[in-house]
Amino acid sequence: MSDTTGVDLSGLVKAYDIRGTVPDQLDEDLARLFGAAFVETTGAEAIVTGHDMRPSSPGLARAFAEGAAGRGADVTGIGLCSTDGLYFASGALQRPGAMFTASHNPARYNGIKLCRAGAAPVGQDTGLREIRALVERWSADGGLPGSGRAQGSITSRDMLGDYAAHLLGLVNLSAVRPLKIVVDAGNGMAGLTTPAVFRDLPVEVVPMYFELDGTFPHHEANPLDPKNIVDLRHRVRETGADMGLAFDGDADRCFVVDERGEAVPPSTVTALIAARLLTDHPGSTVIHNLITSRAVPEVVREHGGTPVRTRVGHSFIKAEMARTGALFGGEHSAHYYFRDFWSADTGMLAALHVVAALGTAHGPLSSLVAQYQRYAASGEINSVVDDQQHTVAAVREAFADRDGARADELDGLTISTADWWFNLRPSNTEPLLRLNVEARDADTMARLRDEVLAIVRA
């Protein structure tokens, strides 16, 4: 798409980032315009860029840097990095940043995650709408107008060691016993970051798919899909490891597997980390989205903290982190946010907290996390529904007279009682309704799940 005249960005610019297929939706000419528009919108005098291992990422990052420098900004490129590595650079250098990645999407995709200085998010309401408008206007006009600013510089800097040292300084790992941990990098950026972070720890890392390969030859770099952690679960059992870790493509999300090869739900990881952090920071606020387990706010209260419930989506989590000065935040999707990491999300720091907890416990990981796994959950179930509004209304009416049931619409429809809850919410991008159900026991959960699905899929 080297001809950007009249480009339509509606399918490329999402709510929180820029993401699409290469080269038909995103190419280097367009990346150059985005770089210029980013500087124009933020007014930045200096920015930092990084990229993942996808074949198209270095060229896109270079073009973006050229566009930014053409508007007068000095650009520091940190090269190959995880998304939380880019957030670290943005925070440490106090510069706006751009990360080139499509996270867990297939190889033909790429994109740009943008942030302001200090890793503050850039979304539709915080600059992305303006950036899109500039790119559309410039492409329609046939190119960039003059900026009136002197050409900026483009330089390179390796910050991987600084990133690792910063994370290690946030968790006390001094008393950790020797552990064996299988790490599935999914051919993504954890293949670069894991050796740097774990190098001096008393941990034997069993590597899986550490070769950086943006074509993802072994499996999709999306551990949220159970089929993509089958290899990890098998290797944990095969090697007698203490635990397993799986990262997505840009390594900002971390999934945990116990010594039996069983997945540890992200809500359980959220509760474990919250309990650890509140021990040193009693009275602090912890953010959780509305489809994390009910165990999370219970654990937060038990440890003297204040739980705050938000909508699903990192922009809402980060907004509440900023508003409340929260210590920590967790999502069902395995994004974990830390106040000491500029309130940004980092899968590696979450992993270190789990390592620290297990490394100072006497039993296996399954025993350690059992206290946080209090309910039976369905996981997220998607249904194709053409008339989402009508279907949600039908579900609301069906449960309107249920004894003790309360309804709220913070994000979709949530119906809850003392013994169970469910949330039904529409996808922002597809004709889907997403259902999550949790109950005190598996039988109740299954009955409730099937009752709601019977209405949704009627």
- The top-level CATH class of the largest domain is Alpha Beta
Parts with pLDDT < 50 across at least 5 consecutive residues: none
What is the correct CATH architecture of the largest domain?
3-Layer(aba) Sandwich
What count of domains describes the coordinates?
Answer: 4
Structural class estimated from helices and strands: alpha/beta
| Sheet with the most strands, sense and barrel status | 7 strands, mixed
SS field, number of helical segments: 14
Oligomer: single chain
Report the radius of gyration as a whole number of Å. 22 Å
Q: Please report which band the strand proportion falls in: under 5%, 5-15%, 15-25%, 25-35%, 35-45% or over 45%.
A: 15-25%
CATH topology of the largest domain: Alpha-D-Glucose-1,6-Bisphosphate, Chain A, domain 3
- The named CATH superfamily of the largest domain: Alpha-D-Glucose-1,6-Bisphosphate, subunit A, domain 3
Residues in helix, %: 25-40%
Number of separate strands: 23
Shape descriptor reads: globular
User: Quick check: average pLDDT?
Assistant: 95
End-to-end Cα distance, whole Å, is 43 Å
Overview of the molecule:
The protein is of the alpha/beta class and 458 residues long. 35% of the residues lie in helices and 22% in strands. It is built from 14 helices and 23 strands. Strands 1, 2, 3, 4, 5, 6 and 7 form a seven-stranded mixed sheet that branches. α9 (295-302) links the parallel β13 (285-289) and β14. The model has no long low-confidence stretch (mean pLDDT 95).
